[in-house]
Write a sequence for this structure.
């Protein structure tokens, strides 16, 4: 300890101050957006009201009137919930099979799945619109949910696979010896053990679905349009509507940011694909 | 037999869905890339329906390769992706090392730091380009105006005034303009993804071998050589992960570019495809095939690199 003490003054005061500075810097844009959301559109662009202003809730009270917020928010919830569930229903069995009965092809299948994620969305956008309009699914929930599930499926399978791989096989084997059926195996042994992994996968996929901004914008017009579409369609030029734009932005990201705060630790573990312990 | 077929059965839905998802649109793209197919044509109405009789061979590919935007778009794609990767890894490592030790309010610092990662791309872009970077009404504009005002005041000082009057008026930068919009995109995406890198590096640093570090300290290793020879090698794998996941996401960057400049002087490959697709589906499809090839080159490198470390 004596050796470290030479720079203890720096590490005792310098480190926290610097860390807080960096953290506040990174958080500042979000803080600014929330602050601006309580200003009127006129006040939001006046330097004299930069920090001291009369806060107003009007921007939030007029969310429906200005932006039809709830319709888009409902669509976002429907899309994200259904897509997350669908991804899990397809992903859990696949990841389970790969983790507990790996074959020689397992690694290649996993790699191939991840490589589909690298397929540039723009390259297949027009055929998708073409197909969707052809079978009459354009701007429907079913289409958006399917597409958003499929783009997140590879990551979900990867995450679940790394969690399942950590479960000792002996436990499953012991269950088999005792004559537990496959379904019983899944229900009684696997799900309780893998619950944490499944939950954090679900959370991350939910966040990705909520924030998805390519397909949801381009495969919808009104009926199935999500919050991403609302924001992208309403970027106000020339700052005429900074106040209300901030309010609708805050309302769009608020739920997800708060959700992320509560689950940050679990999220990281899943995202490292098991390569970082 | 059931022992073998059950796992296959369980994987089948995922594999089949992804196979269809990949192959069907990709084959259609491939088909469109070899025919003349436009959305509106008064002169040649027969081109507005996809048909084999409009076969164009490699004509669309030639058209795209001769388009001056194409090379620019590839350069821009690489500039944006590489800059973001380098910046997020450097900031990520530095911040992770900074907050690796316990201090007052570390939990709150973590929560503040991670927040940008959860902001949806559309909001990220709207927030930065309007409220922060706008040259007149954004914070940038207000700050520049404020500084100019202060300097203006100083010019009237009795003796030093002469010195300050030599200072030029500061000009705010318009990030919607052609050359600068790429930097705005890089800034906002770096802001969003640095937290992700920080979290992953931080998780990794917690498993660093402390005894090895103490031994190094006893041997007289300084802070820098500890970092260089112990911490950095320990971070090699997480850095590879961060690079891979980000490459997947940023190669298809779109919303930010659309919102910042509508691709004005700052198109990446996905954006160029979108632009062609406004009318010329054939050219858009050919560009799409180029994008697939580029993504595959990147993917082969990355997956090779990551594949080994993930499976053991």
């Amino acid at each position: 300890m004596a050796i470290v003490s030479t720079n203890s003054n720096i590490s005792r005061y310098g480190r926290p101050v610097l860390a807080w500075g960096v953290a506040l810097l990174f958080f500042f844009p979000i803080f600014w957006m929330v602050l601006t959301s309580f200003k009127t559109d006129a006040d939001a662009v006046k330097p004299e009201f930069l920090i001291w202003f009369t806060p107003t809730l009007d921007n939030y009270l007029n969310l429906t009137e200005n932006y039809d917020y709830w319709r888009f928010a409902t669509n976002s919830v429907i899309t994200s919930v259904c897509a997350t569930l669908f991804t899990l229903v397809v992903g859990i069995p696949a990841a389970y099979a790969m983790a507990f009965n790996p074959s020689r092809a397992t690694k290649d299948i996993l790699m191939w799945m991840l490589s589909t994620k690298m397929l540039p969305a723009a390259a297949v956008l027009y055929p998708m619109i073409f197909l969707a309009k052809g079978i009459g699914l354009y701007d429907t929930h079913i289409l958006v949910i399917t597409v958003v599930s499929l783009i997140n499926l590879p990551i979900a399978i990867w995450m679940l696979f790394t969690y399942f791989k950590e479960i000792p096989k002996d436990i499953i084997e012991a269950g088999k010896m005792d004559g537990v059926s496959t379904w019983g195996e899944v229900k009684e042994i696997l799900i309780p053990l893998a619950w944490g992994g499944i939950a954090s996968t679900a959370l991350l996929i939910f966040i990705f679905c909520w924030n998805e901004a390519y397909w949801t914008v381009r495969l919808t017009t009104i009926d199935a349009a999500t919050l991403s579409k609302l924001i992208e369609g309403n970027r106000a030029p020339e700052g005429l509507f900074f106040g209300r734009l901030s309010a609708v932005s805050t309302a769009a990201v608020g739920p997800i940011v708060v959700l992320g705060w509560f689950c940050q630790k679990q999220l990281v573990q899943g995202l490292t694909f098991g390569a970082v312990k | 037999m059931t022992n073998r077929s059950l796992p296959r059965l369980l994987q089948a839905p995922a594999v089949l869905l992804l196979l269809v998802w990949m192959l069907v649109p990709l084959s259609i793209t491939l088909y469109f890339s070899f025919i003349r197919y436009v959305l509106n044509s008064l002169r040649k109405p027969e081109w507005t329906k996809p048909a084999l009789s409009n076969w164009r061979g490699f004509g669309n590919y030639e058209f795209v390769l001769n388009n001056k935007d194409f090379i620019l778009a590839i350069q821009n794609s690489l500039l944006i992706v590489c800059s973001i990767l380098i910046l997020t890894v450097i900031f990520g490592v530095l911040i992770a090392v900074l907050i690796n030790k316990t201090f007052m309010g570390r939990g709150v610092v973590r929560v503040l730091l991670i927040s940008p990662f959860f902001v949806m791309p559309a909001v990220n872009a709207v927030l930065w380009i309007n409220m922060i970077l706008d040259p007149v009404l954004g914070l940038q504009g207000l700050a520049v105006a404020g500084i100019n005002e202060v300097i203006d005041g100083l010019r009237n000082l009795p003796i030093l005034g002469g010195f300050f009057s030599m200072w030029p008026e500061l000009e705010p930068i318009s990030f919607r303009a052609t050359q600068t919009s790429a930097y705005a995109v890089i800034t906002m995406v770096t802001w969003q993804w640095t937290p992700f890198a920080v979290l992953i590096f931080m998780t990794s640093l917690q498993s660093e071998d402390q005894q090895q570090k103490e031994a190094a300290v006893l041997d007289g290793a300084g802070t820098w050589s500890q970092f260089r020879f112990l911490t950095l090698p320990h971070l090699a794998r997480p850095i590879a992960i961060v690079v891979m996941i980000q490459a997947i996401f940023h190669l298809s960057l779109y919303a930010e570019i659309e919102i910042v400049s509508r691709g004005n002087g700052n198109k990446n490959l996905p954006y160029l495809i979108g632009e062609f697709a406004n009318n010329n589906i054939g050219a858009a499809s050919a560009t799409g095939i180029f994008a697939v090839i580029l993504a595959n080159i990147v993917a082969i490198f990355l997956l090779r690199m990551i594949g080994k470390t993930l499976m053991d």
